[in-house]
Automatic annotation (TrEMBL):
GO terms for molecular function: hydrolase activity, acting on carbon-nitrogen (but not peptide) bonds. This is Polysaccharide deacetylase. Residues 24-77 are annotated as: Disordered. The keyword Signal applies. Residues 1-23 form the signal peptide. The keyword Oxidoreductase does not apply.
Amino acid sequence: MRSRAVLALALGLVLFLTGCGGAGKTPTQAASPPASASPTPAPPTPTPTPTASRATPPKPKLRPLPKTLPAGLHRGSGDKAVALTFDDGPDPRWTPQILDQLRAAHVTATFCLIGKQAERHPELVARIVREGHQLCNHSWRHDLNLGRRPVADIKADLARTNRVIRDAAPGAEITWFRQPGGRWTAEEVEVARKLGMRPLHWDVDPQDWNHPNAKTIINRVEAAVRPGSIVLMHDGGGDRKQTMAACRQLIPELKKRYGISRLR
Ligand SMILES: [Zn+2]
């Protein structure tokens, strides 16, 4: 009896010493004994259904979306010429194609970049800047509800996106911010401004994200465009073959009819 107790004590001492002596090797093991040594019995499990456990971290309530767009959004090029904007890239398949088209036409556009995409394809961000296009922050992960979240979350999202864009293109100017889906809130516009970005909306939306054919994209743009329009199209977020085809006709046509200019 007593010898067993001594043995247990000795064993405990050895374990204690090796636990301390192995500093750096297994820090998690060193931390585990107190938990198992807990004298209290395991607490009754509070019937954790999968939904209940997922709901435990309280989600901040989303701010309601305003019925009308907040004031101060840029919806015109500031010029007689039209401005082209391409969202949801950079994408290794489509972005180089549209860059080639723009270069061939000697015009520039504005690229609304998703942070995660910019992190994955920094060489495309660098090329966009090198070829004289303007940059627009389009949120980290295309969060349609970003404008409804706490101001601190919006700020963190926008700042993180700007950080990866600037890592890819040091010193690049990120003039614009565009809320995914155009689901703006006044609070978000304010955050963007505080971070030095102007809120960029549009007035011509051919809904190319919904995969109409090239002819439909062309028709929709032609029907809605007027002097000073901002045209919204996509070079990422899905198969953009039809957008690329539409642009081969639209870019020379818009350039001839209105001119294509930088946003101001
Ligand atoms: Zn988008």
